[in-house]
Amino acid sequence: NHIHFGDGDKLRHDRKIHEEEKLNLANKIQLDMHENRQQREDTGRESAKKDDTLRYKRKQSLPERPYVDPNAPGEGGKAVVIDKDKLSPEEKKKFDDGWQKNAFNQYASDMISLHRSLPDVRDPECKDLKYKDNLPDTSVVVCFHNEAWSVLLRTVHSIIDRSPPHLLKEIILVDDFSDMDHLKQPLEEYAAKLQKVKVVRTKKREGLIRARLLGYSVATGEVLTYLDSHCECAEGWLEPLLGRIAEDKRHVVAPVIGNINDDTLQFAWFNPDQIHVGKFDWDLTFNWMPIPSYVKDKMNSKVDPIRSPTMAGGLFSISREYFTELGTYDPGMDIWGGENLELSFRVWMCGGTLEIIPCSHVGHIFRKRSPYKWRTGVNVVKKNSIRLAEVWMDEYKNYYYERFNYDLGDYGDVTDRKKLRERLQCHSFDWFVKNVYPDLFVPGEAIASGEIRSKAKPMCIDSAVDNHNYHKPVNMWPCHNQGGNQYWMLSKNGEIRRDDGCLDYSGGESVIVYPCHGQKGNQEWQYREDNSIYHANTQKCMETSVDGQKLTMKTCTGIDRQIWTWKRKSPS
Ligand code: LR7
Ligand code: MN
């Protein structure tokens, strides 16, 4: 499993040579950053005292930001609304291209200052929190593949403008083999003018996981902070993250992730009572959930760190030493996906904690589609997820595998990662579930699971379960025996569910999928001895239409169109 990073070694080499030179430079820079006035006032005091004052001063002051007209587009995090009808044909084309290339409104972003102001979104209580004097410094690693100029540079400037200089060791921009021209020479030149910003490049498209490993290999700060390439850091974002790590290097921490609207670039944030934590579903996708009661009950204040079973993956800080001990990332993971759950499970199972820090806010552009090319012909997310399931999930991995009928395919070699787990002497996945995420729905508790096949025709109950499919009628589809949208579980309290979606009937023609509410009612079903599926509330039975395409609810009669085979599996 050898990776050729290319630039990494060279940089490390260069670094050695310039270490001394840079140290001098760093001292000089720091001195330059102090207000000369302060120094002048201090002359005459004894030198020890002066040092203290300087250190204090350094902690307080942020770099000066260039003046931006407060009425400029997007200032204060406000929305930029563009009336496309008023654009000239050329501008319209620019507008469309921007969306096409980035899956967000690049045209709007280009209108906004790289130094735009954001509201101070912190809870007032945050300002009472005190942090250690000698917080560790951080390298911020930003990986990108074909990112828009204004969005990437706004990320960079928001880091510089809102981080106390002595805590920001460097920003490492990792170019994952982009082919856009602006990311080549122009970025190099721009970065050279900014102190502390380095550009490193992969030699081929590696995907975000190995790109992050390249960033890791050249980073020198005590803490590593990873950010996506379309973020904006809000006032005071950094100290609370570093402060928590300073208490114990095993604290892995993430900011509250605000939403930068993909269309208007409006910056929205979450108050302490709206903050969500990370969960996962059995198809191993990451999702958000409200703070569970067993987490909330242990918090003394709304600005306390919030324990989170998983993390989104893109925005977090970790002690560089601890990241090393913990085995960084799995270099066998490609392009995108899986690494966030892998690291989440690993942190918890191997002695660390994962927390969201309510006083730290960073915005991220959430997109509806992925704009860049993935590896074709390989389902990389599935491959990455199987790698993590094999290494970390023990017998629980089967709940994931059932979802695609154990069609694992080639997921490469995971021996090294299994050795890592042994070396670290980690807890079992069962321990993780019971101690960190006790209210997780575990399919092993299901009474029946798998496809639900009609006796009348080889048709199965079929529906996606996600925000876009909630409230929509559930229909029938030819059985494909591959799990996926035909995989359903009957829970102990009568829900027919997948992840957090439940079959729900409230009268009328159709059954719909609806978020599970755990209250029985419209979501209570019985799979009866005669293989009918009975809805207690309305006393009706599931029935397929004569052509087999539709699912309806009818008075129970026991005809073939009301008889179902539900593949059962004994809990593994
Ligand atoms: O091949 C690639 N090489 C890269 O360098 C593909 C992507 N990337 C870069 C890309 O430019 C971006 O900066 O990697 C970063 C993440 O890719 P996005 O922004 O296209 O994806 P995303 O925001 O949906 O990614 C989320 O899930 C990923 C799973 O692998 C990573 O963990 C991302 O970091 C994660 N993003 C967040 O957690 C931000 C909050 C979103 C949520 C929920
Ligand atoms: Mn992203």
TrEMBL record:
SMART domains: RICIN (SM00458). Its cofactor is Mn(2+). Signal peptide: none annotated. The keyword Amino-acid biosynthesis does not apply. GO terms for molecular function: carbohydrate binding; metal ion binding; polypeptide N-acetylgalactosaminyltransferase activity. Pfam families: Glycos_transf_2 (PF00535), Ricin_B_lectin (PF00652). Coiled coil: none annotated. The keyword Nucleotide-binding does not apply. GO terms for cellular component: Golgi membrane. It comes from the Eukaryota. InterPro entries: GalNAc-T (IPR045885), Glyco_trans_2-like (IPR001173), Nucleotide-diphossugar_trans (IPR029044), Ricin_B-like_lectins (IPR035992), Ricin_B_lectin (IPR000772). One of its GO terms (biological process) is protein O-linked glycosylation. Pathway: Protein modification; protein glycosylation. This is Polypeptide N-acetylgalactosaminyltransferase.
